[in-house]
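step 3/5: co-fold with pyridoxal-5'-phosphate
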Amino acid sequence: MPRPTIAEIDLSAIAHNLRELRKLAGEKVEMIGIVKADGYGHGAIPVSWTLSAGGVKRFAVATVEEGAMLYDAQLPGSILILGAQGLVEVEAICDFGFEVVVGDLDFAARLDEVARKRRRTVDIHLKFDTGMGRVGFPVEQAMKVVRRIAELPGLSVAGVMTHFASADERAGAEFTREQIRLFTSLHQTTHAINFRIPLWHACNSGGLLQYPEARFDAVRPGIAMYGSYPSPETARPVELREAMTLKTRLAQVREVPEGATVSYGRTWTARRASQIAVLPIGYADGWNRGNSNKGHALVRGRRAPIVGRVCMDMTMLDVTDIPGVCANDEAVLLGAQGKERITVEEVATLLDTIPHVVVTSLTGRIPRMYKGGEQRK
Ligand SMILES: *Cc1c(COP(=O)(O)O)cnc(C)c1O
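step 4/5: write tokens
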């Protein structure tokens, strides 16, 4: 028998989020399925099949290895590699027939060379840096870039894109509008020279939820597809459902006397005789050590505080105030139990981080179980 610690993924929640986000974006706007980092920890392949059933035709990952996994799954549609690709990945990109983001000319030249040698063309998405300050061509060089790329017969421009630096922060609104303005003007000037590219895209989740003027031809909502808003400040124009439930069962319940301390560093002391439940999950599962003495798990439909330091393989709860708790009771760390719910967003806020980190941190030691959706293999 395996450990009872599992992440249950409700694929019908992802299908629901896709429908809601598509309604928001408008039927004409393509939804790009963002399934990097193993579908934000939800499992890239089952998530992609669910998105595919909902009409998604382009799947975006960060690395060639992630792309190869989708390729092997034989999903219909194209695979777009988003991350920072080096020259070593060029051959694989070409051989798998991936689309790839291009934001520098040396990379473009090498890709072209390899593509021509193999008598193929690679579909690329030109990335412009409108303010993210990470990768992408400077917008001022747009004309030079477009001209230079046009001279590379091994490349075919399928898209033009940019990425927002702070679309989910209230304080970033002005900056985001400036990024949109730069991208819009790029769209206009390149159209004026007859550089007509099918797909213009800019929006991540924050952009899609808050900037209707930035939808262009396609959108790239990641975390919203999995059901979390990117930040507490983000507007909530649609009702999203978090797809992940992280749960386990109490390994034991022990009584400790007043004055006893729990776990490493003795950071928690029982103020009264207490019932302490031991959960078989720890930071090696991706349950962050920052949850020490913070946050809760649900037991018998109620919130039990996490006490003491989270260990590599165990986490302790104070269940003194919940009557009848016994070993093997279910404990929910993310998701609902009875009428109570702990959201990914709540845990992210407690940890002073973003929902993306909470879900992508869960390691391979936690089996993913699926319900409610398109499942193949
Ligand atoms: C990851 C990623 C996204 C999705 O971001 P979210 O904040 O999860 O919506 C969109 N675009 C690019 C280029 C990305 O790398």
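step 5/5: annotate
Residues 49 and 75 are 7 Å apart (CA to CA).
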